Amino acid sequence: MKIRSYLATGASLVAVAAMVSLATGAAAHQILRPYKFGTTPPDPNTPTVHIGPYQAPYVAPRNAKSGTWKDVRKLPNFTQYGPWAPQLLTDGTVLVLAAGTQQWFKLTPDSKGNYTDGKWSMIAAMPSGDCPLYFATQILTDGRMIVNGGEYNVCGSGESTAGSLYDPVANSWTSVPPPSGWSEIGDADSIILPDGTYMLAECCTSNQALASISGTTVTWTAQSGYGSNSEEGWTALPGGNLVTVDVWNVGSNYDDYEFYDTATGKWRLGGKTPDLLTNGSLELGAAPVTPSFGTKGTIIQFSANPASGVNDIYDIASNKWTSGPVMKIGTTIYDCADAPAATLPDGNVLVQASPGVYSSPSHFWEFKITSTGTVTATQVNDPTEAPNDPSYFGNLLVLPTGQVLWDDSQDSIREVSVYTPKGKPKAAWRPKVTSVETSLTVGSTGNAISGKKFNGFDLGGAYGDDAQAATNFPLVRFTNNNTGDVCFARSYNFSTMGVWTRGKTNAKFDIPASCETGASTLQVIVNGIASKGTAVTLS
């Protein structure tokens, strides 16, 4: 069931606290979280409030295994619900939406490549009628960003079908029509398939569609999912297929999981998880991949079940699931009923969790998988506002520095913070540049680059149906050998978007005229992991 808690009244929606039983099956929905606490229609001039009494900031036990947090300075005016859905553009900048509005802000790193001291600027506003909160988002192979749906749309109607395509070079948006017959994209899942095709779900039916994008024209090809798409996330597998854990086909102690075959466009039943991972609200946690164990990596499917809190582990190569660790503080179980996670450069997975559905406080853990397959969960430090929030407030985005950006979407005290982990990537995980001109010109366009592991082993950040934060594409970064200043090219035309890709991959890049000239070091970065440096000269 889903409790649909909206009432379209022009530009406002009203949250409904009572549970309403709706039809089951493909058209059924999940319980809808409150997007403003209480029963008043949203007011952009009124800040959101905490659930329950304000709690004093909690500091997790400090230990050598924990990374550190540092807030991003001088935040812009994130009105309405605060920062949401951070996206890494292919020029190294980060876009963050002032949720529930039409306004995105761009974070540009400073001259040394630091994001905490970066500069914020406002980009063009989204098209009229598109003010989304909880929606599908991806970076396309040409470097543009596409946005579809919205569980809420403050300037339109709930379960929005609105869509917009952003061109960062022109700083302009184009409206994108929904697939034919779709009535509610809502908080839908999306992904970029290995051949670069954008795949989108309709949140609350079995409808799915593939996009063909030519210029600003988007053409949709319909296909069908495996039952309702609602509340389910898609995880990319080596070889190009997808896997999802099903929140609808469940037993007393398991969820079904299904595979998507990119060759046939069909879903099939895979089997059953060892534990029940969903809860009465049909929410689910993220399912990030880590290359730490197994010949094809490992998925950590985070649980939303507050009764057991068992997080299940999937070895992709052997197609076997096992029960993993439980996150606890004292006797309190922490789960991930909508929560962000991110695969760190060292293969650990950072996750935010809280006790029960939509409840605070939330805290952070790093999951580590050893070479023998043993999984441990270590509580790490928190950003300041996290203990005042339920887990669904946050997003995690992997930065080119190997750090992870976290935002706090609904706390009345806005915070964007960056986590610096302790670990380093294995040498075998680093991308490798095999071909690039060593004499390059600032302001030039269409420069070719080739190499291996340009799309990494995972998607980077994960959340599920409410947000996506993929960074599995190659960035090109120059560091001036004399000054140490950093300059990002704009990369695009990625030959593949598949994780664990073997063989050579290609891309192109444009060099800003603002880059410093002289002897420099070029690196390709994917999911925060940088290649060895290649000596180049910029003129």
Please supply descriptive tags for the structure shown above.
mainly beta; globular; 43 strands; six-stranded mixed beta sheet; six-stranded antiparallel beta sheet; 539 residues; Immunoglobulin-like
CATH architectural type of the domain at 428-538: Sandwich
Task: Provide the residue-averaged pLDDT.
Answer: 89
CATH H-level superfamily of the domain at 428-538:
Immunoglobulins
Task: Give the helix tally.
Answer: 0
> Which bin fits the share of residues in helices?
under 10%
Please provide a written account of the structure.
This protein is an all-beta fold. The chain has a domain at 428-538: Immunoglobulins (Immunoglobulin-like). The protein contains no helices and 43 strands. A 6-stranded antiparallel β-sheet has the order 28-27-26-25-35-36, with no helix packed on it. Strands 33, 37, 38, 41, 42 and 43 form a 6-stranded mixed β-sheet that branches. Strand 41 (518-526) and strand 42 form a beta hairpin. The radius of gyration is 22 Å and the shape is globular. It starts with 67 loop residues before the first strand and ends with a strand. The model is unreliable at 1-58 (pLDDT under 50).
